[in-house]
Specification:
The structure is a single chain. The protein is an alpha/beta fold. The chain has a domain at 10-163. 38% of the residues lie in helices and 14% in strands. The protein is built from 8 helices and 8 strands. It has helices at residues 20-29, 52-59, 76-79, 98-101, 105-119, 137-148, 164-175, 196-215; strands at 10-14, 34-37, 71-74, 124-128, 153-157, 160-163, 180-181, 184-185. Strand 7 (180-181) and strand 8 (184-185) form a beta hairpin. Helix 7 packs across helix 8.
């Protein structure tokens, strides 16, 4: 796939896999100069050092960062997983349908901000709590959109990095193990009229929908 990030790079990170010092080291290692907090609620009882005010204080300490000027933005309206407008709920079950929300004005405006930043040379990281990107909306909702629009996304892990295509393949193997092959899909007699690539795209949509249902915020009856 040809990527169009231009001069900036898009990363994601789940802070629960890192101490504060290790988090700073990763930010510096990848020359990141913009942290976008995609949590709906930017607070954690278990990891208080990553609460919004603590992060805002941290980024002001220029001596910690390879890039002396680093930005922190909290964008819950654009990228938070806990959307409460019924317009974005699954039609049969009360959970946030990521595909619906990705077509919203809020989400698309957020994506435009990131695209503009990348075009201007910013290295941007989407930050949430979950270590594994395949279990987090930063990958299933947000990175999915950028991947579909031919942007390269790299997920920062404690022991290395993983690209979005690797996450895609993990989901295909999880939900369509019997059909999955490295070079496409075997399918069934019902799929004989589809190419391996067409079948892969179809199954990938289904896989993301399945993962969405498993991890999505659900509205409880009040």
């Amino acid at each position: 796939m040809t990527h169009i990030n231009t001069s900036g790079m898009l990363y994601t990170i789940g802070y629960s896999g890192f101490t504060t010092n290790a988090f700073i080291e990763k930010i510096n290692l990848f020359n990141i100069n913009c942290i976008i907090d995609v949590r709906s609620c930017p607070y954690s009882k278990r990891f208080e050092e990553f609460n919004k005010e603590n992060l805002e204080y941290l980024v002001k300490n220029k001596n910690l960062w390879k890039n002396k000027k680093i930005w922190y933005l909290h964008l819950p309206k654009e990228f938070g997983a806990r959307q409460t407008d019924p317009l974005y709920f699954h039609e049969k079950e009360k959970y946030v349908d990521f595909e619906k929300f990705r077509s919203s004005q809020y989400f698309l405006e957020g994506c435009e901000r990131i695209k503009k930043g990348l075009s201007q040379g910013y290295n941007i990281v989407l930050m949430c709590a979950e270590i594994d990107p395949s279990h987090c909306h930063r990958s299933i909702m947000i990175s999915r959109w950028f991947n579909l629009h031919k942007y390269k996304v790299l997920h920062i892990l404690p022991d290395g990095i993983k690209d979005q295509e690797s996450v895609n393949n993990e989901l295909l193997k999880k939900y369509f193990k019997d059909e999955y092959a490295e070079n496409g899909f075997t399918g069934s007699l019902l799929d004989m009229d589809k190419s391996a690539e067409e079948l892969r795209k179809e199954r990938l949509r289904e896989a993301f929908a399945k993962r969405n249902r498993e991890i999505a915020f659900r509205v409880t009856e009040g």
